[in-house]
Amino acid sequence: MTRSLKVSEVFESIQGEGASAGEPAVFLRLATCNLHCSWCDTKYTWDFNNHAYEAEVTTRLVDDVWRQIKAATARRLVVTGGEPLLQQAGLAQLIHQLSTDHFVEVETNGTLEPKPELSRRVDQWNVSPKLSGSGNRPGLRIRPRALAALAATGRAWLKLVVADESDVLEAEQLIGELAWPKARVLFMPQARTRRELALRAPFVESAARARGVGVSPRLHVERWDGRRGT
Ligand code: SF4
Predict the structure, then answer these.
(1) At what angle do helices 144-152 and 165-178 cross, to 10 degrees?
(2) Residue-number span of the structural domain to which 130 is assigned
């Protein structure tokens, strides 16, 4: 049975964040999210009070999406959202149809456990649990079982969006509670514009250095000021 996916957009660019920043990639942005972060820069994937669902979301057969990804130049697929793990069955079908020369990254907010049929074909998980500044309730945004399952794959990076000292303290506590290896932790400045990035990056870089974790750039914000689809 061919499944379908609720798709926001598909485009080619470079990976702008995380451990593989700078790599050419084809992006599959899936629609809908189970969190509502106040500073979310992709609200068009889930905030249908302010964005028209019919204009923003297309329900497409997996085969149709697969053909588009296969035709792209990049051999790195970045699945992002929204929250991609809300559509695990369709996503698993899609990535299993890709040949093994495709490297598959999935970005997730870390609230949902990946099913084995999906997880075994994912080469890299970019896990970004949300801190209290996101405006989501703690019981919704931090799901220890899901985070432990992602960590147990051995292919996951923890990417924490931080804006100030209180975020850094909260991030530090979370890293300790999860016992996540620091070599696989990145702090990333909260920034939707070049200006915000320029203001926050120096603080975030020095906070990361002091705690022995890495820093993720935000190349899309740096180069294109966060313009959609870049
Ligand atoms: S989890 Fe990601 S996509 Fe969902 S609201 Fe938060 S920032 Fe936006």
Answers:
(1) 70
(2) 4-167
According to DSSP, the β-strands at 103-108 and 76-80 are parallel
Assess whether the C-beta atom of 91 lies below 6 angstroms from ligand 1: no
With a cut of 70, say whether residue 108 has pLDDT above it. yes
- Give the model confidence (pLDDT) of 139-149 as tens digits: 999 999 999 99
Q: Is 42 in the pocket of ligand 1 (CB under 6 A)?
A: yes
pTM exceeds 0.85: yes
Return the H-helix or E-strand segment holding 140. helix 138-141
DSSP 187-230: EEE--SSHHHHHHHHHHHHHHHHHHT-EE---HHHHHHTT-TT-
- Residue among 32, 40, 41, 80 whose CB has most ligand 1 atoms within 8 A, to mutate: 40
Number of neighbouring beta carbons within 10 Å of residue 34: 16
Task: For residue 146, tell me if it sits in a domain.
Answer: yes
Q: What total number of domains does the chain contain?
A: 1
101 CA from centroid of ligand 1 (Å): 29
